[in-house]
Design a protein that fits this description.
Organism: Candidatus Nomurabacteria bacterium GW2011_GWA1_46_11
CATH superfamily of the largest domain: Endonuclease Chain A
Number of domains: 2
Structural class: alpha+beta
Order of helices and strands: HHEHHEEHHEHEHHEHEEEEH
InterPro entries: TrmB-like (IPR051797), Tscrpt_reg_TrmB_N (IPR002831), WH-like_DNA-bd_sf (IPR036388), WH_DNA-bd_sf (IPR036390)
Number of strands: 10
Pfam families: TrmB
Protein name: Transcriptional regulator, TrmB
Largest sheet: 7 strands, mixed
Distance between the termini: 92 Å
Strand order of the largest sheet: 4-10-9-8-5-6-7
Shape: rod-shaped
Helix content: 40-55%
CATH architecture of the largest domain: 2-Layer Sandwich
CATH class of the largest domain: Alpha Beta
């Protein structure tokens, strides 16, 4: 019997019950019913603390209260109520965990990591839209590489509006993209969409993800994985911006060949 009691006590501890709560709960289960004085005395706890704990157990639907002082009694309810209470708490915790996942990017942005880069992950179609919306906060030119087919196939209704909003904000984009029919179609709209596009050989330079560099950020959009990533670091953004400027110099040479100039 002692081993069973220890097992029950451990279960209650693991469930968040304090030692005095466990003592009162097990005592009232054993007595069945009793006054605060009777239950507290047997549990070895002072009466005032017994009142607080019994009211807490009543709030958990583990005990019931009947009568009025000085003859008020507490009665133990079925142990099945403990299972029901723990199941309810588990559901609440799962709900809180899901809520925490949803605000994880915001929580991460508040996390002080000193001079270390901050990295944010955004999943799904909504996440991909979010990272592109963030690029509209750019205070200067954007340097990028894009995959128009994957972009428009994944978010078919989004990008026509995105191009308009970016052009309206006069955020200019320098980009190099694989030479495809859709890339040529978009290149023809460079002036309207506030962009300079350089075509590069598709087979020689495959680029399956989108990358945009703006402000102190690097945005990566993985269409296959439905994942958007934003790296916030002035040093990384500055380095990759220089790399992209250098790459664009070479991309323009390929563009002239492909465009027959």
């Amino acid at each position: 019997m002692k081993e069973q009691i220890l097992k029950i006590e451990q279960l209650l501890k693991d469930s968040g019950f304090l030692d005095k709560e466990i003592a009162i709960y097990l005592t009232i289960l054993e007595l069945g019913r009793g006054t605060v004085a009777e239950i507290s005395r047997k549990a070895g706890i002072n009466r005032s603390t017994g009142y607080v704990i019994l009211d807490s157990l009543a709030g958990k639907n583990l005990v019931s209260v009947s009568g009025k002082e000085p003859k008020q009694e507490y009665m133990a309810l079925s142990p099945a109520n403990l299972v029901e209470y723990l199941e309810t708490q588990a559901k609440k915790q799962r709900g809180l965990a899901e809520s925490a996942k949803q605000v994880l990017p915001e929580l991460t942005s508040l996390y002080n990591v000193g001079d270390r880069p901050r990295v944010f992950f955004y999943e799904g179609l909504a996440g991909l839209e979010h990272v592109y919306e963030d690029s509209l906060t750019s205070k200067g030119d954007i340097y990028s590489t894009s995959t128009y087919e994957e972009m428009h196939e994944t978010l078919p209704k989004y990008f026509s509006t995105y191009y308009e909003k970016r052009a309206k904000k006069k955020i200019f984009v320098h980009t190099f993209v694989a030479d495809t029919p859709l890339a040529r179609e978009r290149k023809a709209r460079d002036t309207i969409e506030y962009r300079s596009t350089s075509l590069i050989p598709k087979d020689k330079f495959p680029v399956p993800t989108d990358i945009e560099i703006y402000n102190n950020k690097v945005m990566i959009a993985s269409w296959k994985e439905k994942l958007g990533i934003i790296i916030e670091s002035q040093e990384i953004a500055t380095t990759l911006r220089s790399v992209f400027k250098l790459a664009l110099t070479e991309a323009k040479k390929h563009d002239q060949v492909l465009s027959g100039k």
